[in-house]
Fold each of these.
Amino acid sequence: MRIIKRIFASAVLLVATSSPLKAQQPDAWVTFNSDAGHFSILMPEIPKDETETKPTAYGPYTSHTFITKTMKGLFLVGWVDYDPRFKFTIQDELNANRDNFVKAVHATLLRTTPITLNGNPGIEFTAESPEANIKSRVYIVGRRPYQVAAATYKSEEDADNVQRFFDSFTIKKP
């Protein structure tokens, strides 16, 4: 059984159900560094850490999600720390993250491509819901899955910022 990262999926649903917090100009983006998450990424503003620990039959897991919104959509990054007893295979975990995410946001999967980041395996996928176009990357670094996702309103394409967001994601050594 795979654990659904509902917090990621819920965040994408915010695109369709809430108003934008503020408009961001491309030059206003900032570098967000997470020491605990061992990563760096460009975001429209410094996000707050939304941390949640949930019990499961395989031991607890803790998810950390960072979300920012613009007039055109939503950008999020996060990771999950699993209980050491939880065993998974890399490809199954990547696929489960993708499938559970797409299902939770009531989207249709359009395409999946294998990718890597510094030798770490991952997938990039695109999906669409009635309100938004979604692009996400999931990487497995050690035992930690990372997810980077952008959802933009269909009427407000933001391809340049979406690409800049994804291209800026880097993993730091602990």
Amino acid sequence: MARANAKDMRRRNDDPVNTLAIDIGGTGLKAAVLDPAGKMVGERVRVPTPHPCPPALLVSTLEQMVAALPPFDRISVGFPGVIRHGVVLTAVNLDNEGFRGFPLEKTLAERLGKPTRVLNDAEVQGLGIIEGKRLEVVITLGTGVGSAIFIEGRLTPHLELAHHPLKGHKTYEEYLGNAARKAVGRKRWNKRVRYMIEVVRTLTNFDRLYLGGGNAAIVEQPLPANVVLADNVAGITGGIRLWDDRVWSAVQIVD
């Protein structure tokens, strides 16, 4: 894991610590600098995700993208795949074989020159959404499907629901991902979302389910009382919570 160096640690108590939050998506790469309260400093930037997107190209694209942003002291990254101790295990919507075993956390820390923490993107978004009470589930609907489960605000072991069967032989991603939405149309896709909600309810007995990601904006109301639409900006603002030691220590236990 990348750790803060001595210079980073020797800050005055009244010095603000700004966090560069990066949200890596299958369609777009987004980044913003957050102040200690989680408020954006300046504007968020976004560029299309390259396709194909091998690790070297992703890293160089991120370097160029964040060069014009305000100064920052540390980095949080949400990545669309399984991350363990800063290393990529899967990246289905990018370059799965190319990313397998890639030390993304260490590489970004070295290339951008700041301590870095990397976590699955749905889990980062969840940190920006949840209340921290009882059993909360986050499902992100975008290029693919992401998931995160929290109990009393603590992250549970990561489940790749995206690649688990949901309907017949179709996985969550095949049934609800962006390609499926375009293929079946908005009305049928929304029926699939409602079906997924009931499956996840049976699977987890959630107290609250949050629907996030770019396609959450086209989920039709009404929804069950304990199902909430979340702002996609949480994929950025949740990044600051990776630097809450209580949150990060729980992540290390899960990993």
Amino acid sequence: MERTIKIKRYLPYTLPQVWQAVTDSRLLGKWFMENDFEPKLGYEFTFHRPPQKGWDGITYCQVTELEPQKLIAYTYRGTATAEKTLACAGIHSEMADSMGKGIFTELDTVLRFTLTSDCRGSCLELEHSGYKGFKLVIVSFVMGMGWKRLLRRKLPLVLEQIAKEEMGK
């Protein structure tokens, strides 16, 4: 059993603007997670958030593919209990938390952003692969909801900020 999250978003912004949003550490931190990222092939970095129930807040990554303005991919690894997944899904109850404590998952996946442009602006394709086994397939559905929310709500706000800054120059 294996699953890959695939999301395609058309964005009314230029390719360089979208590329900047997914590869600039400061901007990536605004719409996704704080990080020490640099877009360099082989570069090791972390995404981090404050620790939460069932998760230490750290995701370990390494850049595995890089084609400027076209493609960036990196490993995406971490560990968590099901409590983290349940919290992300908005499920809060004593029974769910106690059941989730015993379910431990180790995430060893690959996150890839592919960009193309057309007359509408840019197309961003997110592919988050490597969810293997029953537990991780379940986790992938929760992660997929999170990715959709980030790409629909938070990323456009950052892109709007980039566009405004460029217009002010």
Amino acid sequence: MTDRSDPFEELAALFLTGSDAPAPTRAASQPLIELIVVGCLPVRASLWLVPYADTVARELGPTALVRLDEAQPTLQLLRAPPEIASRRWPTLADAIADLGRHIGTWLVRPAYDVTPDQMIRTQTDRVTILTSVNDSAIVKAYQEIKLLSEAAKQGVTFPTLGVAVLGADHETAGRFHEHLRHTTASFLSYELSLAACVPRVDAAVGSAGRVTFPAEPYPSLDELMSWLRAAQPPPAAVAEETRHEEPEPAPVEAAARRTVKLAPKPRIELESKPPSGTREPDKQGAAVLLAGWVDDVLPLETRSPGHERLEIAVDPAGRLHVLAHEQDMRGLSVVAAWAVAHAELIARAFPDRWIDPTANPVLHVFTDRPASLADLHGSDLRLHVLAPVDVDGRRGWYHAPLNADVR
């Protein structure tokens, strides 16, 4: 890392980079459509859109940035041939239709009022969050990912999800991405790629063509996406073009090289559970959480990887609780250590609940055979009996604490 003793030189370096690089030629294939979500960025957020688009264009060839977040729709072309960049069109729809055969990647910045649900339902190829690397940025990025994942639960296919780290060196960006990727995989079961790293704004970077459309009614995101899909070249035209050109990597393939190679999506492997003669409590067929049997404890919708059957909860004082059935109690210390190590991230994931990251978790064990836990009454574990009670052919559940409250 370069040592900069002069703060004015350091500030200047943030906005200046080295020489330009030639753009690869366009691939004759279906273009990539990407929606951009702007998170916490250094300086003015709008300054980073074109540098990010230029980074994409360096890898994928001619790229178009469509902005719906300004007073009027704007189209900017990056690393497009001069004969393409010099064209002008009466409407944005005309421009998209004309550029369909020349643009390999469409980057779309939606309007400010577009919701995560609306973005997910467009069935875009990918969503990329532009972010810096400070504490506020990681919280904001995680919140955006969580909102997108909740929207995807409505039965809509989740697109490829990535982050572009702006205003940081590649080493710092890698650490930030790994931190956020681990959190996202643990809490939301989504893999997060590192789409790009842009260390600083390049003073020489600019769009080859910038066109506004003041006379056109403002299109909705769905309307814009329909124009982009209609502008894609038909398969026959693509096949004809590839017969006369040397084969080149498709934009999506090039995008894969641009991103960090992902490990396989984490699988949830449940620990083996010995057969039991009793069923766990249920309510209309759904299992009742163990936290529901403990006063003043609220369950958290998170699990430690590899120990998904153990519950994590929090009390009004912000103290974490880990709860397990007797057959799973060997995992209590592991999950407690994991919860302590990730207490700050858990707190960020549940901003409506106070969590004290300095407090040691309270550990609970539930059993239907109290005698089997007799040797643990002097320990720091909170022991509970939870056993079925059958009366007149109907089953209920009895719960009671077995030892004194541990504080």
